[in-house]
Each structure stands twice: as C-alpha cells, then as structure tokens.
Amino acid sequence: MRALVPFGGRQWACILVLVLGLSSCRYGYQYYAEPLRPLDEEGQAAGMIVSDDGTVTYVADRLEISVRPFSDGELNRLFPAQSLQGTESTNPYTFGNWRDPSTGTTPRRFTVFQLKVKNYQYPKLLIDPAKSTIISDNGRRYPALSQTDMEEYYRKYITGYVGQLYTTFQGRKDLLSRTLYPGGVVFSGQEVEGFIAFADLHPEVRKVRLRLGDIALRFNFRDEPIETINIEYAFDREIGYYYPRGEREPIKN
Known about the structure:
It is built from 4 helices and 15 strands. By secondary structure, the chain is of the alpha+beta class.
C-alpha cells in the first residue's frame, strides 16, 4: 500500500490561491449607491409638494422654496463642454467623464442639490447656504461647502500659477462662481436659484434630511431677523453590494 505523502508548502499555497480566487467571485464586492430620491409627501414635513422630477417644494402662501438632488450624470449633461476632458474636466461638481482604471467606474466628488426660491410673500427674506446641513439616519452630519471650501479642495491639485493645471483650476472656480446659490437677500417678486454642495455621503448612508437653517422672513428696523424658520426635506437612496460578475445585492432595511 502506498504511503500518503503530505502536501508541501508550495501545494498548499496553490490550493489557497485557488480557494481565494473562487470565493472572490462571489464575496469580493464594492459598495454602490443609487442617486438620492425624495420620499413621498407622506414622508415629508407638512406643506411639502413632491414633483415627478424629484423636486421637493415648501409652499407657504406665495413663498416657494424648492430643492432637488442632482446626480453626477445630470450635472455632466448640464455642463457638457466642461465634463469631457477626463482629469482636466472643469466641471467642479463631478469627475466628468474620467473613470477609475482599477474599477472601471466614476466615483462621486460631492452631494449636490439645486435650491430655488420664489418670494412673492415677504418684503424680503434671507437664506444663508452656509447654514444648510445634511443629517443622515445614522447620525452623520454634512455641513454645506462654501465656494472657498470647494476652491481649497481643488487648490491642492495645482502646483503653480501657470500651465494647464492652473487653467483647469480657474475654469472650475469660474463655474462655481456662476452656479452656486448666491445667498443674500431675496426681495419681493424675485426668483433666485443655484447649487448647494456637500461632501459625498458615506456608503452606508441610506436616508437623509436636508435642513435649511435659520431662514429669515422678517426683520426689525436694524435689519436684524425677528422671525426665522427651519425647513427639512427628506430623501433616501438604494445602497448595496456590487460583485465582480455584475451582480447587485441591495442592503435591506
């Protein structure tokens, strides 16, 4: 009878590689997250209207304050000329058409909402975008990013004040100046809109509330706010696991 010969280190190494390779086909994964979408009107605060395009509008008589989440795809289509140069794309809200060569996907830079204000109710009102916050269902908080914050984020990519990198930085800066919500007073009869941006949400975040804080509706003779409100808008998104073979497995509640 032949004696059993134990495996050597090399054979065990080959078996281990094979097992890990087979298991990674099913258990190696990345997180994925779909774009934010609003909860229905039952899931919103009183006085909210949810539109088919994903806009949520707070209505109080003749005052309307609307927010709408924008996906990266929508932002790229909104700024097509600024989103086609790969790493040199000047769209400040996304990575443009660049793809990570290791994953074949495009990551998100920021979480972006469009804010629209229609004031036909008050002599003037004030919304300070710096007082906006995203609050997640698991307790994370994301303060709004100012133009200075976003410029500092991009400034680390430039190595001097000449050349293509600086030109790209200036292009992003100019687009931010033209498209971020401007802040300042909205007088009666005016309509104002722009984007507010936040850090990219963590992969485990499913439900969030966007809070617009300390909206000033009335002022005293010193131009100091004497009546303010906070408004919250509710959103969620599908999150889950993406496996190498293309399988997607949503994470259940």
